[in-house]
Known about the structure:
Elements: H1 28-44, H2 56-86, H3 105-119, E1 128-134, E2 140-142, H4 143-151, E3 157-163, H5 184-190, H6 207-224, E4 229-233, E5 236-240, E6 247-255, H7 256-262, H8 289-313, E7 316-319, E8 322-325, H9 328-351, H10 355-374
Antiparallel strand pairs: 1-6, 2-5, 3-6, 4-5, 7-8
Helix pairs in contact: 1-2, 1-8, 2-8, 2-9, 8-9
Amino acid sequence: MSQARIWTGSADFTSGSSTPFGTYDSDNLFKSDAPKVASWCAKRLGYPIIDIELEGENFFAVFEEAVSEYSSQVNQFNIRNNLGSLEGQETGANYTGQSIIGSELNNVATIAESYGNFANVGGRTDIKKGSIDVTSASQSYDLQSLYADVSESGERIDITKVYYETTPAINRFFDPYSVSGQGTLNLVDEFGFGSFSPAAQFIMMPIYEDMLRIQQIEFNDQIRKSAHSFNIVNNKITILPKPLSDYKLWFEYQVVKDRRENSTIITPNVVSDYSNIGYNFADYSKINDVGKQWIRKYTLALAKEMLGAVREKYSSIPIPGSEVSLDGSALRAEAQTEKDNLIEQLRENLNEVSKKVRMENEAAMVDQQQQIERAVPLAIYVG
C-alpha cells in the first residue's frame, strides 16, 4: 500500500502550476493569501497535533474552487436580478462589479405592442386601408375574395374598422349657443328678458344637455328608423339596410401573416437568457472582507471533504499488534453539511438585497414614517 503524503506545515504558491485552472493566478492578493489560507485550514483540521494527509496543491485547488463558487453564487443572483434590464444588450460585455440601473418597462412595452395590433391602437404591423364597390342590388360582400385575393395576393386579412356609419348626430344638432330649434326663447321669457333682448340671443347650456340631445338623436335613429349598421363574419360583410345607391365602402385591415411575423422580435448576438449574459468570475482582490471570510470557510469545508475522501481510502492503518481506524466518512458528512449551510446563508443574504425586496422594504419604511408623523402633535398658532 502506498504511503499517504502529509502536510509539512507550509507551502509555496507558484503561478501556473499550483491551481488547476489558474483563474486567479495573476491576482497578487490571491497569490499571497493562498499559503495563509492553506496553513489556516490545516490547523483547523488538527495540524500539528495530528497529521493532515493533504499537500499544498490540494489546499490551493480548493481555495480556487471556493473563490469561484462565491463568484458563481453572486453572479447567479445578479443574473436573476438584472436579466430584465440587460436583455437585448449586445453580448461580449462583462457586467461583473458594475451597477445596472434599468427598467423592466421596456419588455412590457414590447409585449404591449403586440396587443396594440389587435386593439387597433398601434403595434408593429401596418394598418392598411381598402375599399369595395357597393351596389344597390346586393347587401352581402366577401371582402376576402373581392379585395384580399386581388390586392394582398390571397393572404388572409383581418378587418379592423369599417367606415359605414350614420351621419354623426352632432351634424343634426343645432348650435347650442343659438335659439334655433332649442326652445331657448321660452327660457329667455322665463328670465324676464323676452322684451329686452336683441334678435340674436345666446344662452350657455350645461354640457350634459348637449350629451342628452345627441343621445336622443342616436336612439331615435336606432329605434324609429332603419339605422345604418353592418354584420361581418369571416370577412363576409352584410350591409344594413339594403343600399339604395352605388358607392364605395372603405375599411381598414391588417394582413394576418404580417401580424403573426411581426408579433415576435428575433435579435441575434444580444443578451437573451441566463446562458449568455456577461458575468465573469469576480476579481479576488475586489471581494470585500465579508466575502473573503465566506471563501475561507468554504475552503475549509472543501478541504475537510477532500481529507475525508483520502482517509476513506486509507480507512485503517496497521500498527504493531493492531490497527487505527480513520474518520473519513464522518469528515465527508460534516463537510457536506457545512457546504450546504454556507450556500444557503449566502443565497439568503443575496436575496435580502434584491431589487424586489429592497423596494418592498422602502415601501414599508415610508408607511412607518407616515405613521410616526401622524403621531406628532400639530402646533397651535396663538395670535
